[in-house]
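Issue 218. Parser rejects a valid record. Input:
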Amino acid sequence: MASQASTDQFLCEDCQGIRLDDSVLDGFAGESEDGYPVLKFESGREPKRVEVAYYEDLLPDLPGLLKSHQDTQCAFCRYLREAILRANIEEESQEVSISVQYRWFIDRERIEVIGEDEDEENLLCMGVTLTGAQNSWQKYLFFKVESNEVDVASWLGIHRCPEPEGWCPENIEWV
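Output the parser choked on:
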């Protein structure tokens, strides 16, 4: 519970949805080969996108995300704005809709864009869809989701972040 409280401190109200609620996926508890609890699903599942946040802003500077970060110190607003600005979206000044989704299971789009193995399953990535005014264009950004918490990484079927210190006990255990 302590990690949830600390996460709340760094997210504005609009970004609270990025704290994943796995109950929307209709999975069940299972066990991995190494004994950790994992989120399992029935066979024959279809790729699923779960929208967790939605914003409307203005290109090219995204002043709404900037103001949210400045007013609330929201880490995700800052991160999202910086990622979109780094993507160098060359569209004229206009309104943009920003949809943030978690993407689950294999889908052809993910394999082609990110290059993941076809055997990969469970939480694949966080996708951001940018849509121009009157649906005049769409751009996509994809982000790998990792966790340094073993239980979280195992449960979601995601990669664990290595510890920053190369030979720490956690990395040695991981290797």
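Fixed in the parser; the record now loads. The chain has a mean pLDDT of 81.
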